[in-house]
Amino acid sequence: MADLASSCKDKLAYFRIKELKDILHQLGLPKQGKKQDLIDRVLALLSDEQGQRHHGWGRKNSFTKEAVAKIVDDIYRKMQIQSAPDLATRSHTGSDLFRPKDEVNDSFQPQPVTKVRCICDSKLLNDNMIQCEDDRCHVWQHMSCVLVPDKPTEGVGPEVPPHFYCELCRLSRADPFWVTTGNPLPPLKFMSSGVANDGTSVLQTVEKTFQLSRADRETVQRSEYDLQVWCILMNDKVQFRMQWPQYAELEVNGFAVRVVTRPGSQLLGINGRDDGPLITTCSREGTNKICLRRVDNRTFCFGVRVAKRRSVPQVLNLVPKEAEGESFEDALTRVRRCLGGGDTAENADSDSDLEVVTESVTVNLRCPNSGSRMKTAGRFKPCIHMGCFDLDTFVELNQRSRKWQCPICLKNYSLENLMIDPYFNRITSL
Ligand SMILES: [Zn+2]
Ligand SMILES: [Zn+2]
Ligand SMILES: [Zn+2]
Ligand SMILES: [Zn+2]
User: Fold this and answer.
1) Which positions fall inside the SP-RING-type domain (predicted)?
2) Cα(76) to centroid of ligand 3, in Å?
3) What is the per-residue burial (b if ≥16 Cβ within 10 Å, else e) of 277-310?
């Protein structure tokens, strides 16, 4: 039995919150808590003594230890397939990943192959880590650093978002017309350091320096590059956008730089977007000094990056080509589902289906943005409505608005969710 528990424990060490919740869901156990709580909850089922101590979950549960071990194992296998590059670098098969207990000393704790990069600047692992979902990033961060409760004064802990992205991946999704090529001032947490006795916010200042080499200076002066200061609100409900604090004042090497055009007291609305000021002209080779002031108690993160511009055609190019995206058959199924005309196979070629479609076509062939007929029909993958918009017009508009918001349902997305709708595209090309 001890073997079962210890091999599960080793595997659980590799799991993200997502996998742990998946297991707890399968076991019918509560899914809330910190990462270590979730692990303990699973382990409790595998150990006799602990089973009773852990709030009795182990007893109420009807799963045998073997059944629990199998669920853990299945998810572990699935993970290996999905994130092969992460785990495969350690070994080629799952089985020799974990050496038998007698070959290692007792203090051996398998550590996941991890890249830790956190806004606290510490690279140490602790028991409560969260991983960025971006496929090219996958960094781990300290939950206590990056998850900020909405109402800290009420003692309500932060929510673990279903899709977690680190601040740099949020930044790159906020505006795909910029590509980060360097971070002279890496992401820095700007926390609330105080509230006056009467409960009002006080002015807070953070001063930092960052280095620019001669090569950096030459790069940022090229026309397609710039040096940019960015800032995001850690627990922003709109995940992919910049946001500056209230009464933000920025100084770079003694030059005042305007960060937002709205009045200092005005909060950014759900449909608003802030931008990152370009500071190439006030930067210099060597040491640069940056100073940010604000009167705002929320937790922000800011940094300075070297960014390269993407043109409209380059951004359009990031949207999968029609042939690489959704298949026509899948699109058809989706449209049928939207129309509520459930049954498909039978009506596939029937006139009734076509009639229903024809009805909505008159409305939807006009792009809600341009008002004219769509050339290429675009949509956001997660949207459940039929309506589309003209892809080129949409991308062009977003070069300025940076909203990446569906013009039909107004939900906020990012470029990676944008696709060509093969169904509407076929109709528009008729
Ligand atoms: Zn941290
Ligand atoms: Zn996800
Ligand atoms: Zn990331
Ligand atoms: Zn939508």
Assistant:
1) 352-430
2) 22
3) bbbeebbeeeebebbbebbbbbbbbbbbbbbbeb
pLDDT single digits (tens) 282-301 = 999 999 999 999 999 899 99
Check: CB of residue 388 under 8 Å from CB of residue 378: yes
Query: Which residues, listed in sequence order, are joined to residue 116 by a DSSP beta bridge?
Result: 140
Whether 272 contacts 337, CB under 8 Å: no
How close is the Cα of 271 to the center of ligand 4, in Å?
15
Minimum-distance ligand to the CA of 378? 4
Domain tally for the chain? 3
**Residue spans of alpha helices (H) in 295-388:** 312-317, 328-339, 351-364
Give 52 Cα–ligand 1 centroid separation in angstroms.
Answer: 34
Give distance in angstroms: CA of 133 to centre of ligand 1: 17
The ligand with the least distance to the CA atom of 116 is 1
Are residue 289 and residue 201 in the same domain, yes or no? yes
Using the mean position of ligand 4's atoms as its centre, give its distance from the Cα of residue 360 in Å: 16
For 425, list phi and psi in degrees, rounded to 5: -65, -35
Residue finishing a domain among 286, 310, 334:
310
What's the whole-number average pLDDT of the chain? 82
The Cα-based distances of 317 to 174, 225, 336, 416 in angstroms read 17, 20, 29, 11
| The token pair that represents 189 in the structure block | 């947490």
Query: CA nearest 366: which of 410, 338, 326, 408?
Result: 408
Residues 219 and 292 reside in one and the same domain: yes
Query: Is it the case that residue 58 has pLDDT exceeding 50?
Result: no
Strand pairing partners for 390?
377
Residue 124 lies in a domain: no
Are 294 and 147 part of one and the same domain?
yes
**Ligand 1 ion: Cβ-proximal residues, 5 Å cutoff:** 118, 120, 142, 145
Question: 137 C-alpha vs ligand 2 centroid, how far in Å?
Answer: 14
Asked whether this complex has an ipTM greater than 0.85, the answer is: no
Ligand closest in space to the Cα of 172: 3
250 shares a domain with 151 = yes
Q: Are residues 348 and 304 in the same domain?
A: no
- Give residue 422's identity as a one-letter amino acid code: P
CA of 229 to the centre of ligand 1 (A): 21
Rounded to the nearest angstrom, the distance between the alpha carbon of 13 and the centre of ligand 4 is 38
3 in Cβ contact with 69 (< 8 Å): no
**Which structural domain, as residue segments, surrounds residue 212?**
129-310
Question: Tell me: the pLDDT tens digits for 124-149?
Answer: 888 899 999 999 999 999 999 999 98
